[in-house]
Every structure is written in structure tokens, then in C-alpha cells.
């Protein structure tokens, strides 16, 4: 869950409408870069990662907002467990390896299944189009098409180009997510 610090309301130049906790889940296929993103945001540096079996959970402070981020493993055998992390989730960060053209259809299928879950019907969706530093990476426009994001008529969503190892685009994505959640 994201816990909003009371001082965020006192020092904000814009209205803040948060009530209580806001939960965010970080998911995506294995090797998309979820754990790298989590620890780049948490520590500001790249850490050596191994495939996540189960989950990592860390608190990340950004712009007076305290994000508690659940990074859930993405291997196919673990994906049925994702739904156990969806209760009270108001923000969903879906990470895609933009360079993995062979599995983009699999990403689209998993995303489609996930957003049909009742617990996520009100959640805003942030897609991190990760690994943009690689030469064959799909751009945001191409990835948006392949994921079918334009078909999400009743869902607030945003696709953000990112490179987790360099930190590029991560904070822009958090800015969008924070702004959208503050409207609720």
C-alpha cells in the first residue's frame, strides 16, 4: 500500500485528496525488469538480481508519498498467485520487456486477464515499456498497440518508456501515477 504522509498535504501547492492508504502492485512477465525497477527506485542504484520466486516488498519515498511496492515474481507458474496481491489495489504497474518481441503477445494476454479481475476494476494502470536502451526495443506507440491499451475504454492508463538500469522514465511514470491517484 502507498501511505500518504500527512505533511504531503501541508506542503503541497496543489490539492491532495488522498484518504487512507493507496495500494500499488508491480507485475509483469519474468525478466521484464521489475526487481531492477524496484531497487533503482528504493536505493538509487542497480543491484544484482535473481528471478523472484514469491515477492519482494519495499517502501519507496517520492515527493512526500511513501509507496509500499509489491514486486511479484513473473514466472508462468507464479502468475496465478498474482491475484492474491490485488485486494485494495488502486494502482497497477505492469512492466514489459520492450525488447522481447517474442513474448509481447504473452504480456498482452496476462495484462488482459489481470485487468478483468474485480479487485482491479478501479485501479489505474501504468505500463513501463522497459529496456528502451536496447536497439530492437519497441517504442511506446508500438507496444501500446500490441498490448491493446487503446481498447481500455473505462480504464485510466499511461505507457511510459523506461530504462531501469539508467533510471530513465521511472520518475516520470511515478509522477503520472501520483497525479492520477491524487484525483481519487
TrEMBL record:
GO terms for molecular function: GTP binding; GTPase activity; metal ion binding. One of its GO terms (biological process) is vesicle-mediated transport. Mg(2+) binds at residues 35, 52. GTP binds at residues 28-35, 74, 130-133. GO terms for cellular component: Golgi apparatus. The keyword Protein transport applies. Gene3D superfamilies: P-loop containing nucleotide triphosphate hydrolases. Keywords: ER-Golgi transport, Golgi apparatus, GTP-binding, Lipoprotein, Magnesium, Metal-binding, Myristate, Nucleotide-binding, Protein transport, Transport. InterPro entries: Arf1-5-like (IPR045872), P-loop_NTPase (IPR027417), Small_GTP-bd (IPR005225), Small_GTPase_ARF (IPR024156), Small_GTPase_ARF/SAR (IPR006689). It is found in: Golgi apparatus. It comes from the Eukaryota. The keyword Nucleotide-binding applies. Its main location: Golgi. GTP-binding protein involved in protein trafficking; modulates vesicle budding and uncoating within the Golgi apparatus. Belongs to the small GTPase superfamily. Arf family. This is ADP-ribosylation factor. The gene is ARF5.
